[in-house]
Write a structure and sequence with these properties.
- The structure is a single chain.
- This protein has 12 helices and 12 strands.
- It is an alpha/beta fold.
- The chain has a single domain (7-313), classed as Rossmann fold (3-Layer(aba) Sandwich), CATH 3.40.50.720.
- The strands form 3 sheets. The chain has a 7-stranded parallel β-sheet with strand order 3-2-1-4-5-7-10, with helices on both faces.
- The chain is globular and about 55 Å long.
Length: 319
């Protein structure tokens, strides 16, 4: 179905997932109003301007998450809003100001603008698996994690996991505001996103891959999904009238050892074979709701190869 003439907004459009989302929306015929923090920064804009259809149907706009009302004019006339913008930093001396306030208040500012704009039919929020899996529940063999799970903010606060806390509190605030104000909200909860980069800068996921290649263990396990599947799921979450609630987006779960083994298999002369260590088996992540959107996940081997090739092409890796 052609979406010609339908206008949608993508916040934080220069990011990893958002860039692919803009690309696929343009491909489907939408007119896209895309926000970035700084229009004068070519690293935020040039790769978006180069997309097919951008010249005719992409409007780049500057907006600040912390400035209430700054999204009013951006969202005006849009039928859908994809809110992907959120601070993505792991090291900070002021987590409240740098992460939590920006994530929570930014999400509420966007939703307030959506509430004021009568043309908006649905909002799709980019959240994360980190808002689902971290609590006191046991995750292991035979356990299936699904969309009914919720992370415990106190758990993150105790462990000083500020990025995870900011995502969890932002999603909670979004649901509260949407429910109280009658906003049709759909939330995407992807795992660690892999696949080719459109933007010229490193993001959290690509930094994780670089760390694993260099032998730095970041996590005991990785719940992986391809960036193209994530972008596609966002669009289906908007277009399918039956879409509702949260959607876990995980194609495959790997232990750190399994991820190293896969990288060694793909690049045997560049990535050392991992030394065998005992790792805790991990539980499964339900794909049932994602399947209801028509999402079938790309093999993790394809996604991993594509992100490594992207990192090589952009000179973040030299092998």
């Amino acid at each position: 179905m052609s979406r010609e003439g339908e206008k949608v907004c993508v916040t934080g459009a220069s990011g990893y997932v958002a860039s692919w989302l803009v690309k696929l929306l343009l491909h489907r015929g939408y007119t896209v109003k895309a926000t970035v923090r700084n229009l004068r920064d070519p690293r935020k804009t040039e790769h978006l301007k180069a997309l097919e259809g951008a010249e005719e149907r992409l409007e780049l706009l500057e907006a600040d998450l912390t400035d209430e009302g700054s999204f009013d004019s951006v969202i005006h006339g849009c039928v859908g809003v994809f809110h992907t913008a959120s601070p993505a930093i792991f090291v900070t001396t002021n987590p409240q100001a740098d992460l939590i306030d920006v994530a929570v208040k930014g999400t509420l500012n966007v939703l307030k603008s959506c509430h004021e704009t009568k043309s908006v039919r649905r909002v799709v929020l980019t959240s994360s698996i980190v808002t689902i899996v971290y609590n006191e529940k046991y995750i292991g063999p035979g356990v299936v994690v699904d969309e009914t799970w919720h992370s415990d903010p106190a758990f993150y606060e105790k462990n000083k996991e500020w990025y995870m806390l900011s995502k969890t509190l932002a999603e909670q605030a979004a649901w509260k505001f949407a429910n109280e104000n009658g906003i049709d909200l759909v939330v995407m909860n992807p795992g660690i996103v892999l696949g080719p980069l459109l933007q010229p800068t490193l993001n959290i996921s690509s930094q994780f891959v670089l760390d694993v290649i260099k032998g730095k263990p970041r996590f005991p396990f990785y719940q992986c999904v391809d960036v193209r599947d994530v972008a596609h799921a966002h669009i289906m979450g908007f277009e399918k009238s039956s879409a509702c609630g949260r959607y876990l987006l995980v194609g495959e779960s790997l232990t750190h050892l399994q991820l190293r083994q896969l990288l060694h298999k793909l690049y045997p002369s560049n990535v050392d074979a991992p030394t065998s260590v005992e790792e805790n088996p991990i539980g499964e992540v339900s794909k049932k709701k994602a399947a209801s959107l028509g999402v079938s996940f790309m093999p993790v081997e394809v996604s991993l190869k594509d992100i490594v090739e992207s990192l090589k092409e952009k000179n973040f890796l030299n092998f």
